[in-house]
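hey can u check if this looks right to u? its 157 residues, i copy pasted from the old doc so theres a chance i mangled smth
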Amino acid sequence: MSSLHGLKNDDTLPAIIVTWMRYKLRCLVALSVCSWMGFILFLSLNSHSNISLLSEQLLGNIPDEVGHLGEYAILGLLTYSFLSFYLSKPLNMLITLILCGLFSLLDESFQSLNPNRTPEIKDIIFDNAGSTGAVFCAALLRNGFKRFYVPSVHSKL
């Protein structure tokens, strides 16, 4: 018996829909990672006074270290989420931490291009601490979230 678009009326259509949804989710997470990296670099290239005004208006008066922890915790979660589509858990954790560490080095080197900003080793340590904490939490909770948010091919839509 034929159904929509000439496909047989069996599990083929739900499998196609699930595959398409997973593809869209991967693209959305990849776009989120790239956008967040761009936002971090945008904050690094702006002068410290402009960032202070922006952060005070949006978040109140928070220490710089908390900002570094938060920025890279989000980057770690997004990167871990993206790589979880392709890699096993231990390899995913390792590659995510390496990528976030390299990006924190790039971030601090970009800060050296701005005369009003100075790169600091302390910032790299806080960046890596934020991404490491978030990645380890995500790895511990991964199986619980996967059960609720990743549809099975055999589930009914």
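The chain is about 75% helix and 0% strand.
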